[in-house]
Specification:
alpha+beta, conserved putative lor/sdh protein from methanococcus maripaludis s2 fold, Elongation Factor Tu (Ef-tu), domain 3, OB fold (Dihydrolipoamide Acetyltransferase, E2P), six-stranded antiparallel beta barrel, 4 helices, about 35% strand, rod-shaped
Length: about 400
């Protein structure tokens, strides 16, 4: 009996379960399309603009005029002005050094006496020559011409020559006396003092090294890639690019100068062309309280180059390996090969590779495959159904 009931119960349960399933079929859980992760990037839209090229360079400050003060007479130094010390400023015509002048005073007196003797001899000879002419006219025939010797012309010329020599000797003696006072040939500064009080110097002895303070020059090298973007002054050119000179020594300081000339040859060591910048009043001598520029001080320079009209300029930091950039188009990243016309540490002027209106990626990415899904910061995220590379078939 039990053997008959058990199968019937199991069959009834199975039929009830089947009926329940038929009346309540399972619902299919349909999911939406899978979203591919999007790279969040920041971009800047490329637009044409007029761009002022600024060429960076460096150098050291050097005086335009630098010379050695040399004694033109010999003697003992009896006085040195306080300006005649290393770093001392002086004006043109200032007396710097006195050399004992007593010997030269005596030479002037001797030369004056010799000149007076020569003048007296010339006057006597002139009177004799005139008397000889009168005597010749009185004693000779009317048509007879006197010789030069008869009129004492050679003696008169010799007397005049002695006067000329005496005058020259006096002039030289006065010049030597004047040279016992060493005066500044220009407004400047003492770089190095080589003699001191009481020292005996000879003719031609070096006394000090000085330089002019009106102008300072800086020799600036230019990269070969910069030459086409700066209007360099040549012999017949009046254009002088403006240059801003900066120094970090003792705090940030700046001077404005001009590129005044271009060197005539490429430097054999660096294989670069150098230009010369001049700075006016570099030592702040006209009432400024700032520390003056030092000779030999290292400076940096920013040279104003050409203005490029409608240039395509992008940040240098967006360029990878100096050959390519990334742009965003239709929520995808694309790698673009570019050509750089000019570049500094901040900006790069591009000739080909990107177009006006492109969204240039400024976020550092490294190596990213072209076609990667991306979202621009500040714009809403767009969902995508499947992998971009599967949908579009985009390679690197």
């Amino acid at each position: 009996m039990i053997r008959i009931i058990v199968p019937i119960v199991i069959l009834a349960l199975l039929m009830g379960a089947g009926l329940l399933i038929l009346r309540n079929p399972p619902e299919l859980n349909r999911r939406g399309p899978v979203k591919t992760p999007q790279t969040l990037v920041e971009t800047v839209k490329i637009r044409p603009r007029d761009y002022q090229v600024i060429v960076n360079s460096y150098g050291s400050a050097q005086p335009r005029t630098q010379s050695m003060v040399v004694s033109q007479v010999s003697g003992q130094i009896i006085n040195i002005d306080q300006k005649f010390r290393p770093g001392g400023f002086f004006k043109q015509g200032d007396k710097l050094v006195d050399i004992d002048s007593r010997d030269y005073d005596a030479n002037v007196n001797i030369a004056e006496a010799s000149l007076m003797d020569a003048l007296q001899a010339e006057a006597q000879e002139l009177a004799r020559s005139e008397q000889a002419r009168i005597d010749w006219q009185r004693l000779s025939a009317p048509d007879e011409k006197p010789s030069a010797l008869a009129l004492r012309e050679p003696q008169l010329q010799a007397a005049k020559a002695r006067v000329l020599s005496a005058r020259s000797t006096l002039t030289k003696a006065k010049l030597d006396l004047e040279r016992t006072k060493i005066v500044a040939p220009f407004a400047g500064r003492v770089l190095q003092q080589l003699v001191d009080l009481g020292q005996v110097v000879s003719n031609g002895a070096q006394l000090a090294e000085i330089y002019a303070t009106d102008l300072v020059e800086v020799r600036l090298p230019l990269r070969n890639t910069d030459l086409d973007f700066v209007d360099l002054p040549e012999e017949e050119s009046t254009h002088r690019p403006i240059v801003e000179i900066s120094s970090e020594l003792g705090g940030k300081r700046k001077w404005l100068g001009e590129i005044v000339r271009t060197e005539g040859a490429i430097d054999e060591t660096s294989r670069q062309l150098h230009v010369i910048a001049q700075i006016k009043d570099p030592f702040r001598t006209k009432g400024s309280s700032e520390r003056p520029l030092k000779i030999g001080e290292y400076v940096t320079a920013e040279i104003s180059g050409r203005v490029l009209k409608g240039a395509t300029v992008i940040p240098s930091k967006t360029i990878y390996q100096n050959t390519y950039v990334y742009i965003v188009k239709d929520s995808l990243l694309f790698r673009k090969e570019i050509e750089i016309a000019w570049q500094n540490g901040v900006d790069a002027v591009i000739t080909t590779g990107v177009e006006i209106g492109d969204e240039l990626v400024t976020t550092p990415l490294g190596q990213v495959t072209s076609g990667t899904s991306a979202r621009i910061a500040g714009k809403p995220e767009k969902g995508v159904g499947r992998s971009v590379n599967q949908r579009e078939g985009v390679g690197k």
